[in-house]
Design goal:
The strands form four sheets. The chain has a five-stranded antiparallel beta sheet. A four-stranded antiparallel beta sheet has the order 9-10-14-13, with no helix packed on it. The protein has a four-stranded antiparallel beta sheet with strand order 12-11-15-16, with no helix packed on it. It folds into two domains: 150 residues, Sandwich (Immunoglobulin-like); 124 residues, Immunoglobulin-like (Sandwich). The chain is built from five helices and 16 strands. The protein starts with a helix and ends with a strand.
Length: 310
């Protein structure tokens, strides 16, 4: 979900004429590439499989009712047309999504009272680094604090990025508005996704920073929604030292280590990269309560997740 740090960055874009025009062009290209407002499923496919070649079931890992009529007006540009003043719900999938198969009409949201919500648009922004295209942000009017969304269902043909599995018919319960953010996925990145020394893009979202050149391995942590410090600033060393990664060493002993650097910053998404300077198999990651908040200022509880190793 677009976080408060991103909003501030958008409002502080340079006013130089040439740079402003270039950024405006990049914004429009970015939005068009990753978002859809189409109200109906337009994907024609004969793919019906819901299990991939490795036996992994297609699923929704989490759906988080993050904002109630509170996406900022600037979201009309940073998210998609009509997003400003709407509800915000990040939905995280088990597999990356084929953006060309994604339409707003693929999603159905049902409230506690049984009402069907209105989906204005859906976007994969701003989590668009390699391997991150699994977080879809729904903008629309599909609930309230008094009648919250309780179920989201995929009713159209929504395909994985390799077009081998179809999410149609899959559903999940929705995390309530008042809950704080938690870690929903942790992955030890393969070498081809580590991108050591990578700089963030010119835009204040999408394309986050990479881990330093000296990183031996990297764990990517995905939260159920965008997270910042309380008050909206980007995470920094204060939050870095709170992360504890349990690593199994060559002799079988386990040790808790602290990332020596924190990356995937300044891009407004729901991912952090934990840069490790130790060997061993990463087993799990823990983050204590109260250091990060979602865009509604709800603090995170203690959160722990087993790490998927390629």
């Amino acid at each position: 979900m677009m976080n408060r740090y991103l909003i501030v960055m958008l409002l502080a874009l340079p006013v130089g004429a040439c740079k402003t025009l270039r950024l405006y062009k990049l914004v429009n290209e970015y939005e068009t590439t990753l978002a859809s407002s189409l109200p109906n499923d337009t994907t024609v496919t004969d793919v019906t499989a819901t299990v991939d070649a490795q036996g992994r079931q297609a699923s929704i890992l989490s759906a988080f009712y993050g904002l109630d009529d509170d996406l900022p007006s600037i979201a009309d540009k940073g998210v998609c047309d009509g997003a400003g003043g709407a509800d915000g719900m990040p939905i995280i999938f088990s597999h990356e999504i084929d953006v060309d198969s994604m339409q707003a009409g693929d999603f159905k949201v049902i409230t506690a009272s049984g009402k069907i919500g209105e989906i204005t648009c859906v976007t994969l922004a701003s989590a668009d680094d390699r391997g991150e295209l699994r977080t879809a942000l729904l903008a629309g009017h599909y609930g309230s604090i008094d009648d919250q969304p309780t179920k989201v269902e995929i009713v159209g043909n929504l395909l994985s990025i390799d077009q081998t599995i179809n999410f149609k018919g899959i559903s999940a319960s929705v995390i309530p508005l008042e809950d704080g953010p938690t870690i929903i996925l942790a992955e030890a990145l393969p070498e081809d996704r580590i991108e050591r020394g990578k700089e963030s893009t010119e835009l204040p979202w999408g394309g986050g920073s990479g881990c330093p050149v000296g990183s031996k391995q990297v764990v990517n942590v995905t939260w159920v929604g965008g997270v910042t410090k309380p008050g909206g600033d980007e995470a920094d060393d204060v939050e870095r030292v709170q992360y504890k990664v349990t690593v199994q060493r060559a002799d079988g002993a386990e040790a808790d280590v602290t990332p020596f650097a924190l990356a995937d910053l300044v891009d407004g998404d729901n991912n952090h990269k934990l840069c490790l300077d130790v060997d061993g198999i990463p087993k799990s990651v823990f983050f204590p309560a109260g250091y990060l908040t979602d865009p509604r200022d709800d603090p995170n509880p203690d959160t722990k997740m087993l790490i998927t190793v390629p």
